[in-house]
Amino acid sequence: xxKKPVLEELRYFVKSVSLLDKGxxxxxxxxxxxxxxxLLENLPSTRDAVFDCFxxxxxxAVKIYMLSAEKNLPDPSVDDDAVQELHEALxxxxxxxxxxxxxxxxSWCLKLLGEVCKKHSRRRPPDIRGACILWLGCSAIRHxxxxxxxxxxxxxxxxMDECIHELLTIYGTHTPFFDWVVARLGGCFPLKVISxxxxxxxxxxxxDFDQPSESEVEILSYLGQAHETDLRRALKAMVERELAxxxxxxYLLLLAKSSETIAQSLVVVFLELHDENRLHxxxxxxxxxxxxxxxxxxxxxxxxxxxxxxxxATVVTLILAExxxxxxxxxxxxxTMFVELEELVLEKHSAPxxxxxxxxxxRDALWCGCASDAPFLQQVAVRLVLLASFKSNSVYHQSxxxxxxxxxxxxxxxxxxxxxxxxxxxxxxxxxxxxPKVRPALETAFEKILLAPHKRAECWNILHNLALLxxxxxTAAQGSxxxxxxxxxxxxxxxxxxxxxxxxxMCQERPDVTPGSATDSANGNVPTNGQCKRVKxxxxxxxxxxTDANGAVSQDDLIHETVRLIDCLDIGKTVAIGxxxxxxxxQLLVKYFFYCLQLHSGxxxxxxxxxxxxxxxxxxxxxxxxxxxxxxxxxxRTAALRxxxxxxxxxxxxxxxSQTESEAYSFDKPDDLLIKLNQxxxxxxxxxxxxxxxxxxxxxxxxxxxKSAVGPMPAMQNRLLNAIxxxxxxxxxxxxxxxxxxxxxxxxLVELVSPDVMYNxxxxxxxxxxxxxxxxxxxxRRTFRQSPILWSILGLVACxxxxxxxxxxxxxxxxxxxxxQWRSKTAETMNGQKTDLMYxxxxxxxxxxxxxxxxxxxxxxxxxxxxxxGPEIAYVLKECVWNYMKDHVPSPVLFVCDPHGFHWRDxxxxxxxxxxxxxxxxxxxxxxxxxxxxxxxxxxxPELRNPTGSGNQQQQLAHGFSGGNGExxxxxxxxxxFGTLPPPGxxxxxxxxxxxxxxxx
Length: 1001
Prior knowledge:
With about 1000 residues, the chain is mainly α. Among the domains are: about 1-190; about 745-945, no CATH class. It is built from 46 helices and 6 strands. α10 packs antiparallel against α11 and α13 (about 250-260) runs parallel beside α15. The protein starts with a helix and ends with a strand. This is Integrator complex subunit 5 C-terminal domain-containing protein. It holds the Pfam family INTS5_N.
């Protein structure tokens, strides 16, 4: 039986609710709320009436709020104690009370929200966000939403499904006013709400309209922004269930067309399916779609979606390009997209697809596509880069740098897809009047090398690809797109950076390749530069270098590849370079020349995957560069020749068999005390005021070299001479210009070899004057002994007459030192011959004969010298060579130039007077048994072939054989007058033992 208080409370509740329903304000609203809650807890059968009472309270509070909102007043329901008490009571009932209350309270809240939103909305809200801002400003609405969310947490799986069904049912009858409620409460179980809404949308979709309802789009977009993962899962499940229904794909595409959030999620789903390799399992069948949604319409829709997607659109585009080999519609789709994209770009509009590329969102994938060997994929990637370059030049430049750095060994070497893409990129966007400049890209590539020279593989790729591009440009036809880019001209402008790169690599060359390491290590010597005339800091501090992952590219490859790049430039032909660049290039070319020689003289080099060139090929490239570079700039020729000669004589002399002063002598014996050395001088020497210069070691005699310079190997000698010839040759085959080059070589040799600047003129003084220059003459002689390559260089100079005339001081010093030594009695001999002295004298005479400084018959001296004794050699050198050179200054004036530009002296008009030939004639007559054939060739034959008929010539012939009267008879030889024997087969006047003249037929 019902208790009396409950009945009284029920009567009070009914009476109060009746007054409230009639619009009569209550005196105590709190008492009514308390009575309603008590009835709800103690008398469940009255719950409908109680909830109706609660509805009145909330309706009244919302009504007051809406009136205040229209007047921009604050929410008065915040101070409504009745609504606050109702919220607290219902929240306590749901939290503490039985679980059966949760479905009831949540159902009442949802229905009340739907009715209130529809009843008090005089116009459609702008969107879900605007509706949320409007309704959530009301405390009563916030209480209802919080109660609904609290009930949702207490529901089980079945009750939750029923609640969602009820929520969407109310949404179907109260849309669009209830959309914001679905969007807000859907966050409690987003996956189920999104999946249910998608299913309902697909089921309602018939294809008779172009797009889903605006409410669906807004709710799904709102939920998708807050719960991206759930939206993707729902969309992925919907796509995978497409086989069960034929409307899902058109519906999802139209939904994505209306919502950027859904479109972005669909892109992610597409990428996930592609990564899982499940795209081929999804069989889309357009024939089952609605009639008004055909494949062309879908392709246009998808193309528009790709342009609007902000993330991953580039990756999707590239994937479609890959799928184009299997599906033809992919090419049609991409072509449609590019048509729309190009139209936007040319109209100076932007597109999210291009913004994604500009923001560096997917450049790596785009660049990989450019370097792909799939033609269509590469074409799509290149077109995207070119279109993006309209908006950002950095994309264009960075793409060029990436392709220059690319070199995939897995791709067939002959295809070179990265070069194909690079050529297309360099051509710029088609039809664009303001194409981006290529120079910033090449500048960036060179700076990339300079900033990270330790990344060898990447640096080598840039240099190699750029060299290939330049070769393609040089071989391209006139007017071709490659010629219009003019990469050769751009690299010419950036020659400073190329030279800096080359210098950086040269400074980082392998530490195990050092000058003279091969020869000196073999001889057990330690190379020193103490005696060098000029000491250079050839090497820069070497920084630690990272080893490449594959270890295929070495420092040598980088250096060689840089030279190949420079070889592709027509330096000096088409574009002139500055003086600073010209001098630096000359120095680097010579340094690279010696580097190649050192590299191959040090033994086997480590194998490299890119080293496909021999030493001769590298040297031939150097010769060509030196020839082209030096032929157009005298300053370049001057610098290159100086570097070559200094390197051959001082810095890299070990390559050519040279040695230093310390290497020639052995100092193994311990040094004595200074006091003991002084005691060996004797008392008399100390008492006298004379100065004695010792040429040796006290107590050991003169210093005798323990070893001599080995001299240059023929191959090394020829390589150096070829380099000198390359520097001196003229580009227009002007022989006079070539002579000028070798004349400078002569002057430079004098500068490097001669110890000072005095007495360096062309004339030869009196023989007695050599006492003044004896010390410097011996120093020059010592230089030739330590650097035998000097003989080869002088021999080359002698071939280009009259260049050797400028080396007169060197020839004079050699002749003076040899003359003094032949006169000495203490020189070491071997088999009766002064071997080293004979070698020097012979080489000297050969040079002078080759340069036509000694006319016939004096030009044969180097042949007959081996048949003479020491005094005879000294006599001939003094009377024939020295006196002739003293009286006939070795000047270029003595030479005439023929029409071909060659300089020479006519032997018929420049025969020496008898006073220079008679000493040789008389000396040879003493040894006719040994030199008879030479005597006939030197004297008799020429006089018989060229008879002059003059009395002077006949007198010369007679007196030459007889010794005659006068001074020449007294100088027939070192031992005075002597008889002569006629040469075989000769005729003339020959003096007999008694001095009578006989005619020999």
